[in-house]
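Hey, weird one. I pasted the NAD kinase sequence into the form twice and got a warning about non-standard characters only the second time. First submission, copied straight from the form history:
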Amino acid sequence: MPKLGIIYNDIKPAACRIATELQDKLTASGWEVCMATGLSGILGYSRPDSPVCHTPPDKLAPPGFDDQMAFAIVLGGDGTVLAGFRQVAPYGIPLLTVNTGHMGFLTEAYANELPLALEQVMAGEYEIEERTMLSVQVIRNGSLWWEALCLNEMVIHREPLTCMCHFEVTVGRHAPVDIAADGIIVSTPTGSTAYSLSAGGPVVTPGVPVLQLVPICPHSLASRALVFSDTEVLKIFPATPNQLVMVVDGNAGCYVLPDDQVQMARSHYSARFIRLQPPEFFRILREKLGWGLAHIAKPTSVELP
């Protein structure tokens, strides 16, 4: 019996309704259907009274989700997509991402297109697009303290009411540099259109094998976004006496202390998107972010009376 999964956002009534209807339909068609919310992919935040929030990335898959699963369907917005990939990436399960949220930058189809999209996938008429994921780790006293898979970005920043931070950053074997800023964003090409873009970073097309580092409100005209090879390991040492906060993909985080080390590298897991048509990144930029739209024409000259 073929097997597929459904991951849905259980706080969105539309996603819950579609998930239930889809499960009934697919089960009647002879599929084994495994249902799960995106909850286990949302890692939560460590707290001062409970600082360790450490679940190995290969232990996040919901029951029934394994390498025997043909594909899974995600019903939600971009947050559910990000959580879903943390759940399934270790098994290489491709995801058909369906938007029941707002912008849906990472989604492939809208809810009203699902019947046709599902028919197309079951007929094998699709492509797999692989996207880079990051392994993010916090090392404390020489031991692994916290880790997560990241599809968009890692952000380390000051807490409210603290002063500007200093970060010592090392890329691969290169000499360390000091960055004075409110925080640092490290993003994948997928995340280049998220927080990194808002902070002034460049847009990177998904197939380019790079990562980027973007200072947040740097206190130097020389501190600008840095794009570097994704084969390099990035290490960040907070050169500040204040406790900092690290957030991964907007929904998982950890406190970072002055003696901690944050280490990032390209993960050997990747996010596998099901594409119903050949990926066209510029079309998505145009539709979702308005990139490359024609300028409004200037008024033609008019003869004055």
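That's the output from the first submission. The warning seems to come from a hidden character in my clipboard, not from the data itself. DSSP finds five helices and 18 strands in the chain.
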